[in-house]
Please model this.
Amino acid sequence: MQIRHPGSFGRGYESIVERGGPNADMLMDFGIVSLGPGESWAAGAADEKALLLMGGEVEFSWPSGKASAARSSLFDESPAVLHLPSGADAGLRAGPRGAELCVMRTDNGTSFPAHFYAPAECRSEERGKGTMRETSTRIVRTVFDDSNAPKAKLVVGEVVGVPGKWSSYPPHHHPQPEIYHYRFLPARGFGLTAIGDEACIIKDKDTILIREKQSHPHVTAPGYAMWYLWVIRHLDCNRYAPPYPTFVDEHAWVMSPDADIWSMPSERGKR
Model:
C-alpha cells in the first residue's frame, strides 16, 4: 500500500500510520516531527519508540540522559537515533536550523535500557557489491536489530539507492510488517517499486506499507538518489532475525558472483 504526501509536513507531529486506524495490522505508529528553530516537542512515555533525525539540529532528552545531534545530508551521513522503552518520555528541542525526525512506536511491555545511537554506531555496508554487475549495489545502514536490541520489537535502518540501480533486490519477503519512507535527491526525483504484484511510482515523502509475504524490489531513476527509512515490527512469536528474508526462488540466482548475466557486446571481454 502506498501513502502519498505531495506537500511539506506541517510543524509539530504529523501522523502517517496509526495502530488504531485502517492499517492497524502494521502494528506500528509512524509519523514525522517538523520543528522550527528553538521549538520543542515531547513524545510521551507510552510505547517503545525510536526517534531518527533526518535533518537539522536537535537536543534529545530522556529520563537518564541528554544528547545533541546534527545532520546535513540523508545521503552522505548516518543517522542519530534515540531508542526508548515504554515508560520513558522523550523530549526534543530544535537548534538554529530546525529539525525533522521520523518517529516510530509500538506496544512493548518488556523493559530495556534507553539508548542513544550516535551516527558512528550505525552499521553501514555496500550491499550487493561484487554481484549483479553492480546493478544493485546500495548503501544499507542498520541502526538496531535483533543483534544489538534483543528486547526491542522494532528494527530500524536506512537504505540509500544509487541513481539508476536497484535496491531491496533480489525480490524478497518476510512475515513481519515493514514501513518504508522515502526522500529523493534532487527532491523532484522518483523510483519504482513492486509491492507483491502491485507496481507503483515512488516520489519524495511517500510511504509504503509492506505486509506478510509481499516482495518489495525497488529501482531508482537515473540522475536521482533515493533514501528510505525502513522499520520492521518483530512478531511476538517470530522475530526478524537470521536467516532474515526469503528471496524469491526464480530470481535468487543473480546473487552469485559467477552468475551468467548478459552484457552488451561492446562490454564483453573488458571485465
User: Anything to note?
Assistant: The chain has no helices and 21 strands. The chain has a mean pLDDT of 96. The longest strand covers residues 91-106.
